[in-house]
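To the wet lab folks,

You asked to see what we're planning to order before we commit. Fair enough. Below is the target structure as tokens, and below that is the sequence we designed to fit it. If anything looks off to you, flag it before the synthesis order goes out.
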């Protein structure tokens, strides 16, 4: 774990290192939670065995104990300021995150020199407001992008994404990839869908 100073406060990076890493996967959290999210924990546990070091990034507002995330520009400023710590190992970095963290990664990946973008539970629109689409944040990324989306995510179901989006669906998953009791798969199996798809994507295979 390391603390990194940014213009908007202290950020924190928790490293899950691979023994022989070939890539760094940097993951930011959402606006409603931290790095304890189930998908972030699953990736941090699984990816080091695939040669991918995982950096779980906590934004300054979260480190400071605040309950409400700041404006997007502030999130982007913090992420950009801590980026040098992510590239320090000298490996290519995939920028990613869940929900608001995915948006940050999309908005900043190009200028920061990221290799690709992993968007977990991308909030395509506010619940019930498909007319307020954020699709341009995805389509504006001129890098490989993988979206991993719950099948019943109210912030955007898989079928709502722009044609051509590289997307892996987690059946029955909601915005936090939680499953209803009636789901035909377990949470462990759902997390396996995520980690397996990400491992194949980073390894050069076909995600999904």
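Sequence we intend to order:
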């Amino acid at each position: 774990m390391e603390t990194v100073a940014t213009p908007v406060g202290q950020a924190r990076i928790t490293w899950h290192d691979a023994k022989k890493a070939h890539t760094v996967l940097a993951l930011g959290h959402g606006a409603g939670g931290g790095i304890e999210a189930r998908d972030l924990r699953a990736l941090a546990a699984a990816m080091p065995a695939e040669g991918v070091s995982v950096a779980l990034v906590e934004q300054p507002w979260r480190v400071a104990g605040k309950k409400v995330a700041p404006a997007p520009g502030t999130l982007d400023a913090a992420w950009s300021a801590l980026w040098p710590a992510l590239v320090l190992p000298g490996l290519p970095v995939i920028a990613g995150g869940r929900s608001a963290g995915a948006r940050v990664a999309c908005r900043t990946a190009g200028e920061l020199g990221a290799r690709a973008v992993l968007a977990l539970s991308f909030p395509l629109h506010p619940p019930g407001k498909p007319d307020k689409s954020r699709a341009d944040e995805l389509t504006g990324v001129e890098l490989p992008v993988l979206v991993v989306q719950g099948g019943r995510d109210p912030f955007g179901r898989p079928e709502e994404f722009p044609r051509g989006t590289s997307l892996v669906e987690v059946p029955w998953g909601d915005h936090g990839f939680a499953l209803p009791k009636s789901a035909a798969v377990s949470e462990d199996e759902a997390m396996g869908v995520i980690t397996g798809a990400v491992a194949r994507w980073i390894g050069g295979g076909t995600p999904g």
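Structural context that might help your review: Residues 135 and 162 are 7 Å apart (CA to CA). The first strand starts at residue 2 and ends at 6.

Thanks,
Computational group
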